[in-house]
Amino acid sequence: MATTIGIMVGSLREHSYNRMIADTIPELVDSAQYEFISIADLPLYNADLDREESPESVKRYREAIQQADGIIIVSPEYNSGIPGVLKNALDWASTPTKTAVLIHKPAGVIGATPGVKGTILSQQQIRQTLDAVQSYVMPFQKMYISQAMEKVDPESGKLTDETTRRYVQRYVRSFIQWVDQVQQMNGQ
Fold this sequence. Notes:
Residues 4-148 form the NADPH-dependent FMN reductase-like domain. One of its GO terms (cellular component) is cytosol. It comes from Paenibacillus rhizosphaerae. Pfam families: FMN_red. GO terms for molecular function: FMN binding; oxidoreductase activity. There is one protein chain. This protein has a single domain (3-183), classed as Flavodoxin domain (Rossmann fold, 3-Layer(aba) Sandwich), CATH 3.40.50.360. By secondary structure, it is of the alpha/beta class. The strands form 2 sheets. Strands 1, 2, 3, 4, 5 and 6 form a 6-stranded parallel sheet that branches. A two-stranded antiparallel ribbon has the order 7-8. The longest helix is centred in the C-terminal third of the chain and has 24 residues, at 162-185. The two termini are 13 Å apart. The radius of gyration is 16 Å and the shape is globular. It is 37% helix and 18% strand. The chain is built from 5 helices and 8 strands.
């Protein structure tokens, strides 16, 4: 059975560079199945809503994460940090504390930005949040994509820069191996 990778985009913008990169991933590595996990319909996190009868969008979101063998987050950096919509989504996936869907879930982080520094600061914050909820963030592998506007084609909505495509391909292959390692570690 093929590994199922959930892909979560940390931007709601229709023509997001990160969305284009995320949309390219399935064509780069076909040895896995991919499910896109939307964060667009999640309400702002509110513990008063986080009960057994939580909002339907939250139930669907948590279920999608639960069904994935691992999660790749593809996210921009906003004001030197994690986008608010992504932080909100991670907060919803971090409860209930003892059974949260991100606990022991393999996770990877890719980020693209028009700037020259990639998404270093955002990825540090995303990793910190994932560590706090006990996700297994892939170590030693970081995927920062700078000057993204030169590496995507808005017409096709895909990543077109060949060097960057090879880097993303290598990252995703490493991530699939990471998922396998985590599953072995967890006795699955």
